[in-house]
Amino acid sequence: MKRKIILILGALMSISLVNEVNAQKITKKAEATKATRISRTKVVYKNPKTKVIAQRTLPNKREVVSKTGSKLYVSDNRFYRNYNGRYIRVAPRAGLRIGVLPRGYRTVVFSGRNYFLFDGIYYESIASEYEVVYPEIGTVIYELPEDYEKVEFDGEVLY
Hints:
Blueprint: H1 2-17, E1 54-55, E2 63-67, E3 70-75, E4 78-83, E5 86-89, E6 97-98, E7 106-110, E8 113-118, E9 121-126, E10 129-133, E11 151-153, E12 156-158
């Protein structure tokens, strides 16, 4: 019995003298992640940013065209709108009439009708003027304007 008491006291003393006890050693392993590359053509941005180019001034040779109260400025065969003291390039709305076609236009014939195309804008001859019109569905376009954008719509890439 004396022997058991000595063993128990010895065990208690050895435990009380130890400052730190670890039951289990914890080690953390860092898992390496592998980067996958995706082609740019497969990425569809939810909010694509449109490119807006503004000019402070327009050349002196410009025309003012108005349709339904809004003024458009025509300079170098391009249409501009004044916005906060700057001129932003815009596409004219259908129904706008001009007296002379811009230099460099192309004639497009579709369903027996002649359309005049310049910089992505379609014109139709009405009396002695040219009216901006929307192209008919199915009209074939042989070249894109220089500042075209790609858009994905219903899984199809449109320009």
